[in-house]
Amino acid sequence: MKNFLFVIILQFICGCNNLSTEKEDILFIKKFYQEYNGELSKEAESISKRDSILKSYCTSRLVSFLEKQYRENELDWDPFLNAQDMNIKTPETLRVIKENSKYNLYSISYVWAPTGDTVDNIGLIIINEKGTPKIDYVYIGEGFGDEKYKDVEMK
């Protein structure tokens, strides 16, 4: 019985180590935006490189969903920036704040350098996939009709 209890406790401890913390999630999001924005800011942007970045940071479920949205012309802007264009200064002004939500939801905002306006109302849901944080949903003030996250709201 002691061995069984020891194994259960050990599994719990090991399982908890795979869960990401808020600080780790924020660093993950900032790193994503740095790489993503860096690629988009290049004059000769590589679509294959952008896709590679998305596959590294997003769940396959989200990547497939976004590809379908683009293919069906349901999405003509970048949901991660909530804009059609980007600006190279975006990562310098990036703010990431954990939302009070039943989901692991983070509020994203940044200053649009050409105008000085703040772009906000972007939300990312981070999940743990095989011990690695991944973006599983992008919220931009409205849902994409995704049944899994149909009740997501940001304050």
Explain the layout of strands and helices:
Blueprint: H1 2-17, H2 22-40, H3 47-57, H4 60-71, E1 95-98, E2 105-112, E3 117-129, E4 132-139
Antiparallel strand pairs: 1-2, 2-3, 3-4
Helix pairs in contact: 2-3
Structure description:
By secondary structure, the chain is of the alpha+beta class. The protein has a single domain (20-146), classed as Nuclear Transport Factor 2, Chain: A. Helices cover 37% and strands 21% of the residues. It contains four helices and four strands. It has helices spanning 2-17, 22-40, 47-57, 60-71, and strands at residues 95-98, 105-112, 117-129, 132-139. Strands 1-2-3-4 form a four-stranded antiparallel beta sheet. Strand 3 and strand 4 form a beta hairpin. Helix 2 (22-40) runs antiparallel to helix 3 (47-57). It is globular.
Keywords:
155 residues, alpha+beta, Nuclear Transport Factor 2, Chain: A, 4 strands, DUF3828 domain-containing protein
| Spatial sequence of strands, sheet with the most strands | 1-2-3-4
Query: Whole-number average pLDDT?
Result: 80
> In this structure, how is the largest beta sheet organized?
4 strands, antiparallel
Q: In total, how many beta strands?
A: 4
Rg on CA atoms, Å: 18 Å
Uncertain stretches of 5 or more adjacent residues: 3-18
Number of helices: 4
The gross shape turns out to be globular
CATH architecture: Roll
Q: How is the CATH topology named?
A: Nuclear Transport Factor 2, Chain: A
Question: What is the percent of helical residues?
Answer: 25-40%
CATH class: Alpha Beta
Strand content: 15-25%
Structural class: alpha+beta
